[in-house]
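Students often ask why inverse folding is considered easier than folding. One informal answer: many sequences map to the same fold, so there is more than one right answer. In these notes we will look at a single instance of the problem. The structure comes first.
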């Protein structure tokens, strides 16, 4: 049976490629999805690629990944990374390993981005590599 990896993206990431290219690059979330799907085909994984601006959607999708027996979740929770105990609780509540992903390196940015609730539950973090970080995270998920 082919295993599935959920790739979940948080608020404002739907705007990628339209603003702040000096921080997030010029590629769109659709471009990143294409990169992820290419790697998934190569390593024999299915991908559920989603984005929401709503915290509860991300919580629901973490539960869904668990219910459906996903192999892993790649989670770029965007700003919710730094605020959401609800996401941390969801990550801890599910048996599916979560790999945290960020395009930028939040640790090298404003102090309010240095705390990551997601990291407290994630098995690994890939950050500061731009879109390629999603590919690296998928390779890590494949190896779990
Ligand atoms: O580097 C990342 O991937 C972040 O998760 C991006 C979040 C930020 O709050 C995190 O600290 C680090 C912000 C995503 C906002 O996306 C935009 C897309 C286009 C234009 C402006 C923002």
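Output (designed amino acids):
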């Amino acid at each position: 049976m082919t295993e599935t990896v959920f790739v979940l993206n948080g608020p404002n990431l739907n705007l990628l490629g339209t603003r702040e290219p000096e921080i997030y690059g010029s590629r769109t979330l659709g471009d990143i999805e294409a990169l992820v799907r290419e790697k998934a085909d190569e390593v024999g994984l299915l991908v559920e690629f989603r984005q929401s601006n709503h915290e509860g959607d991300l919580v629901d999708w973490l539960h869904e990944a668990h219910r459906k027996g996903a192999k892993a979740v790649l989670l770029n929770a965007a700003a919710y990374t730094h605020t959401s105990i609800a996401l941390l609780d969801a990550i801890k509540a599910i048996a599916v390993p979560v790999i945290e992903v960020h395009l930028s390196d939040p640790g090298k940015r404003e102090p309010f981005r240095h705390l990551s609730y997601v990291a407290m539950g994630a098995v690994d973090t890939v950050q500061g590599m731009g879109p390629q970080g999603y590919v690296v995270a998928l390779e890590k998920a494949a190896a779990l």
